[in-house]
Structure formats: C-alpha cells, structure tokens
C-alpha cells in the first residue's frame, strides 16, 4: 500500500496545512480518503488528477472532511472530463448531505447530464465491505457530525491501514487500529482534553493497547504543532502535506 498525505490540516488549516485528504493505493487501485474543501489544490499541487481515483471514502460529514466534493465533482464534469464511474462512500446520510451542499454551491449542476456515473455507497458500522480491492470496516467513533462518524480500517490481504477520522477517545479507536501496519490518528491537541478530539498524551497512553506497528499523527491544531518536538519520534510519525508513506 502507498499513502499520500494530500491534506493533514484541521478545520482551521492550522500551520497552513490543507484540510483532511489522503490518497491510498494498492496495486492498480487508487482511492481517496476524505475530501476536504481544498481538494483540488491538494491534488494539483502534487500533479495528480481526480480522475485517478475510483472511490472517495469519507470518515464523517464535517466540512473539513467532505466539503471538497462539490469542487471535485465540477472538476470531474468540466476540465477533467471524467468518464469512469465515481463512487462516494461514507456514513448514512452522505447522499442527502452531498446533494444539499452541491445545490448550495452550484445550483442545478447536480442534475446536469454527466459523462460519468456517480454512485453512492453508504456503509454501516462494523460491516466489512469491498471497495476497490480493499476490505473496509467502519467503526463508529465519538464525534458529532449529524451522521455517524467513523474510524476506517483498510485491509488488502497483506497490510492494514487505519484512519481514526476525528474522535474523542473511545475504545472503538483500538478496534479500528488494532495491529495496523500504519494507523493515521487525529491528534488535535497535545494535552488539552476537548470533547470530540484526541490529544497526543491520550494516544501515547493507549498506543500499546492499539498495538499498531506505526502511528502517524495528523489533523493538528496550532498548540499541538508548536509542541511537535515533544513527540517521541521512535514511536510516532508526524504527517505533513505532500508526504508519501509506503506501508
Ligand atoms: Zn476535522
Ligand atoms: Zn470532524
């Protein structure tokens, strides 16, 4: 598997980082995970086209994780001239929320005839599904977004990649990332406990229970970024926009 960090930022683009977006590849299969509002900037900065990706899998329906979809779609409809089907994968409520957002941003474009098929696949928690060669399992986490919020586990038969999405601490974060080769975890604060988000101190404390081979920290606020030199570099990686990780 190969992971490209397209956007490692939080909702505020702390540190100038682009909001949440990652690309995951296995063999010829390529998917996006999350689709933050700067998705087109994130892709084009890396010289990538949205047409490379068959699926976009969303952890949850907060703007910093899914508001890029209308932009991704208009790019696919016009300059990128997409012809291959695109499947949007995410929590129940995804299709309605996307249709509402698209209509607000670009009225009537959702019903304009497209040269590609747009599919929706709303996944239930703890029911593994096959997506572009990955077995994907969603675990519900503690993060209000108007729909269930998920941590996601991707397996390709050889390696395991997991992504926490956004969440306050819940033992489901252990289940999602248990034994993963790489676990990408939101690390919003260093030690300031807030509802709905994680701290470095909590991740450090739970890391042996998770048992992931590597944990990579992402979605960091200014306070966490200012303390990144306190992170134990032997145990944790820190995501940066543009970084590529071979899993
Ligand atoms: Zn977020
Ligand atoms: Zn969120």
Describe the secondary-structure layout.
Elements: E1 2-7, E2 21-26, E3 29-33, H1 39-45, E4 55-57, H2 63-66, H3 69-77, E5 86-90, H4 94-105, E6 118-122, E7 129-131, E8 134-140, E9 150-155, E10 160-163, H5 172-177, E11 182-186, H6 200-210, E12 215-218, H7 222-226, E13 236-238, E14 244-246
Parallel strand pairs: 3-4, 4-5, 5-6, 10-11, 11-12, 12-13
Antiparallel strand pairs: 1-2, 1-14, 2-3, 7-8, 8-9, 9-10
The structure holds zinc ion (2 copies).
Quick overview of this protein structure:
This protein is an alpha/beta fold and 247 residues long. Helices cover 22% and strands 26% of the residues. The radius of gyration is 17 Å and the shape is globular.
What low-confidence regions span 5 or more consecutive residues with pLDDT below 50?
none
Name the hetero compounds present.
zinc ion
* H/E element order: EEEHEHHEHEEEEEHEHEHEE
Instruction: Label the overall shape.
Output: globular
| First-residue to last-residue Cα separation | 5 Å
Number of strands: 14
CATH architecture: 4-Layer Sandwich
Proportion of helical residues = 10-25%
